[in-house]
Amino acid sequence: MTLFEEADARLLPGFTRTFVDVGNGPVRVLTAGEGPPLLMLHGDPQTHLCWHKLAPRLAENHTVILTDLRGRGESHKPGRTAGHIAYSKRAMAAEQAAVMHSLGHDRFRLVGHDRGARVARRLALDFPERVERLAVMDIVPALDFYDGVSADLAQDYYYFFFLTQAHPVPERLIAGDPAGFVREILIGLSPEGVPYEDIAMDVYLRSAATPDAVTAMCECFRAGFTMDRDHDRADRAAGRRIACPTLAMWGEEGVAARHFDMAAVWAGWADTLRVAPMPGGHFIPEEAPDEAYAALNAFLN
Fold first, then answer.
1. Is 191's pLDDT higher than 90?
2. Residues with catalytic roles
3. Is the dihedral of CA 113, 117, 119, 124 positive or negative?
4. Which of 69, 73, 67, 76 lies closest to 25, judged by CA?
5. Residue in 258, 208, 269, 268 with CA at minimum distance from that of residue 277
6. Which among 117, 173, 167 has a CA at the least distance from the CA of 140?
7. Neighbouring residues of 207: CB distance < 8 A, sequence distance ≥ 6
8. What is the mean pLDDT of the chain?
9. In the predicted model, what is the mean pLDDT of residues 104-108?
10. Interatomic CA distance for residues 220 and 90, integer angstroms
11. pLDDT above 90 for 226
12. pLDDT confidence bin for 285, thresholds 50/70/90
């Protein structure tokens, strides 16, 4: 049994593990439950395992689908591409939409945290007919984020600027201690620390510290600085907004909330908005699972 299999068996019992390939490479998929389909997209530098305190409870009323985003976990990891297109949130969202179609779900509810929330938001904008409800956790969209840069924000979120540097600068520097770099992100965004399960932390470090995963992380941030901002700018110019009911969640003690008026940011993108500040910092699914479950359960049902 691999570490990934052991972690899923221990923390997500009852979920079925499989791969789905929609033409680009294998995507790790876990499913459980019955009811309306609910796709949950994890954050960075994590895997689907971040949902282990929420997904089993949500599976009581939903068919829950957990995936590893491309470049993460056990899913395929494209290398560098022209314009960083493989890791644009548009390309990543299209892949997740195709995975759901292959599973027979053409309309579904959608929850995302961190990087997964960026993909989820793009999916709701690009495929409005597919998404019934959208919940996003602790992100500021790329255009708003980079247009709102201050010195303090750049200090707190330094890797939004370090990882965007041209290849191979960040990859080469991270190679000195990749697990240390990943660990710093996992523990550095929450003032009180995050109560990770030991095996979950092992999975995050094992999966995110490999050379191809580090390249994927850099490419994902480079896409955020370039293509994702361009796509956001085009949406804003065209007046394109998120049409489905949207729940925006953020950590009250997190970095994003210190630097942005989160409710105002999301009111600028969503037609029908609810907000739910959460206790703690950035890693809501593992820091505040009970509060997050209450907010999601009320919103999704």
1. no
2. 114, 282
3. positive
4. 76
5. 258
6. 117
7. 4, 47, 72, 73, 74, 213
8. 97
9. 98
10. 11
11. yes
12. very high
